[in-house]
Amino acid sequence: MNRRKIILGIRIFVAISLLTQIGIFIFPSFHRIHGTLHIAPHSLNFFMLFIALSGSWLEGPLGGLRTYYIMRVINPSVSFKSAVKASYGNLFLGAATPSQTGGGVAEIYFITRDDIPISEATAGTIMTFICTLLFLTIALLLVYFFRDQAMGHFFSVMIKTAAIMMGLTTGIFIISVVFTNSVNRVILYIFYRLKASRKIRDRHGRIEHRLTRICEGLLNYRGASLFMWRHGKAAMVLGFIFTCLFFATRFIIPYFLVRGLGMDANLFVIMYIQLLITLITYFSPTPGGSGFAEITSLVLMASFVTEAIAPLYTILWRFSTLYVNVFIGGVLLLRELQKPENEKEVTKKAD
Fold first, then answer.
1. For residues 48 and 256, is the Cβ–Cβ distance under 8 A?
2. Tens digit of each residue's pLDDT (9 = 90 or more) over 32-50
3. Which of its termini does the chain have fewer beta carbons within 10 Å around, N or C?
């Protein structure tokens, strides 16, 4: 992790987001001569908009509470301040990297600022991800079994697809805990066979080094899971509760935005839609799901958000559920990385 790569990721994220937002503004203008922002002020509910915008910064503290209580079991030296910074850093670097792969790195970095070993910080980060995985899996199951029949066939297909993806991910994690040594042996066996048959060339040993790191990570993941199972059940329950609150905040904000913009809304259907959008951004190849999130939101929210308010809604939605937290996390992380000694430490830990 270094400043140049982070800044590059943020530039890509901003560029794609801006292009998408511009496209959302321009496209409706071909169908509506008077533009897209002619909204009567009296139709706006400013109290609802205030609630939505006020909740925009809550994800950081809620994620920080989750990290704090889980890390307290692993290492009591962690401070709540560092845990909140870790949460905001996760949100920031997740937005700057494809499929949010960098979020965990930022979380580990801030936790180690309390002189906590990187192995313990990694274990805590893994546990927070398990809370996220557990929440999304349960949420998808509830949506699948109790979904509104009026949601339509297309929406049901998307729910089933998302459920399969999350089921596979959860299955992989369970197998990695129960059969860690066997999984590691299979990974290395396949690599050495391919290398011996010259289907893979690894002259400098980079691929082998990365696979070894993956195997070590799986062992660390297993150890952390067993440790929390023995000593941190209550912390994991608290972590899961704060995870639920974290996502509830993200899922409910669009409801207040739609009501604030003078449209009728179904709370549960909107929360279903936000769950799908969240999954899409998690697996999106673009930083922060930029482009994919906006377009998916326009399609899925079309029954609640009219063409006239779609551009304004999209900006307010991304601002409330992403941009505010990304900005806070970016300021916190980039200020740390401006210190030369910190950048050297991060580079050394990443190696």
1. yes
2. 444 445 565 667 888 999 9
3. C
